[in-house]
């Protein structure tokens, strides 16, 4: 079994908003659902299932990138104005675009799709119920050690 990423991404421009909502729903389900109060590790051992998982992550992350590229294009267009820094309307529009960017980036970083510390997308993940974010097992261990040494062990239970 192998995902043809090119085929899956072919109509991504049209479908990307759907993927974005999938990510949001995915996060809402996880945060409001069974994992909310406890640390949870998801390990996939089967190489085939790992490949399926990683391919699905790639598609969803690509969908986010498509949306974010559109926002960056809009930001570039705004910067073309000579009065970019002085024009209040342009500054309001720029802030709105920045907010839209983070509306995608924030749930993405909290999601199980990638580790917010190393940004790797092919790892088994641990849910941190304090931060309500997923980290790869390696980063979780490093951060747990670091926060414990700094006297904040509650940050990484
Ligand atoms: Zn990591």
Task: Summarize this entry quickly.
With 157 residues, the chain is mainly alpha-helical. The chain is built from five helices and three strands; from the N terminus they run H-H-E-H-H-E-E-H.
Total beta strand runs: 3
Number of domains: 1
Give every kind of bound small molecule, once each.
zinc ion
User: Regions with pLDDT < 50 over 5+ consecutive residues?
Assistant: none
Folded structure, characterized:
The chain is mainly α. The protein has one domain. Helix content is 61%, strand content 7%. The protein has five helices and three strands; from the N terminus they run ααβααββα. A three-stranded antiparallel β-sheet has the order 1-2-3. The relative contact order is 0.14. The structure holds zinc ion. Zinc ion binds at residues 115, 117-118, 120, 135-136, 138-139.
Tags for this entry?
mainly alpha; binds zinc ion; 5 helices
Helices and strands in order, then pairings?
Elements: H1 5-9, H2 12-32, E1 40-42, H3 47-79, H4 88-110, E2 125-128, E3 133-136, H5 137-149
Antiparallel strand pairs: 1-2, 2-3
Helix pairs in contact: 2-3, 2-4, 3-4
Bound molecules: zinc ion.
